[in-house]
Automatic annotation (TrEMBL):
Biological source species: Actinocorallia libanotica
UniProt KW Transmembrane helix keyword: yes
Stated name of the protein: Uncharacterized protein
Keywords, comma-separated and alphabetical: Membrane, Transmembrane, Transmembrane helix
Taxonomy of the source species: Bacteria, Bacillati, Actinomycetota, Actinomycetes, Streptosporangiales
Transmembrane spans: 20-37, 44-63, 75-95, 107-129, 141-162
Length: 180
């Protein structure tokens, strides 16, 4: 009889994603949305022109940006690639922060490092997309992806404190977890 059979895995419950993890992911998504705002990006690159020097050779600029409209004359493929890269970044932060204890100092370090690694993973995709746009061969794909990952990691280390700070503040105000 089907009703009498108990299947142990059917009674599993998934762990809830905490407010700290949602805060870290939300702050990351907000940063990606701000970087996708064309006016702000123009102001930043105009004020600090040296930031765009690696972009002159095809390395992606900054962490991935979430563009709501096509950016300049780059088109839909670029916009979709950037959106996917931003999704990878937000998912990396959400999943990494979700799996760690939520002490404020540990949350700050975990979110910062997750942002850096997520930016590196997104840079890998963005570099490969640049090589595809440039009609590169296999060595171009490898080189652009590698430089995209390295510069993504550097940008993540540089800007990772922006989503890490709200996550640490959320961890500070979160209720203490009960021992199991």
């Amino acid at each position: 009889m089907l009703g009498e059979c108990e299947v142990p895995y059917m009674n599993m419950s998934l762990p809830r994603i905490t407010r700290v993890a949602w805060t870290a992911a939300g702050a990351t998504a907000l940063l990606a949305l701000l970087l996708g705002w064309e006016t702000l990006t123009r102001q930043i690159t105009t004020a600090a022109g040296l930031l765009v020097v690696p972009s002159a050779v095809g390395v992606p600029f900054g962490p991935p940006a979430l563009h709501l409209t096509p950016f300049g004359e780059l088109g839909t493929a670029y916009t979709l690639t950037e959106g996917l890269a931003a999704l990878i970044l937000v998912a990396a932060v959400l999943l990494r922060v979700h799996r760690r204890p939520h002490a404020p100092g540990r949350t700050l370090a975990t979110t910062w490092w997750a942002f850096a690694l997520g930016s590196a993973a997104a840079g890998l995709l963005r570099g490969a997309a640049t090589a595809h746009t440039a009609y590169g061969d296999a060595s171009a794909y490898l080189t652009y992806a590698l430089f995209g990952a390295v510069f993504g990691l550097l940008w993540g280390l540089l800007l990772g404190w922006l989503p890490a700070l709200p996550a640490a503040l959320a961890a500070r105000s979160a209720p203490a977890s009960r021992p199991a």
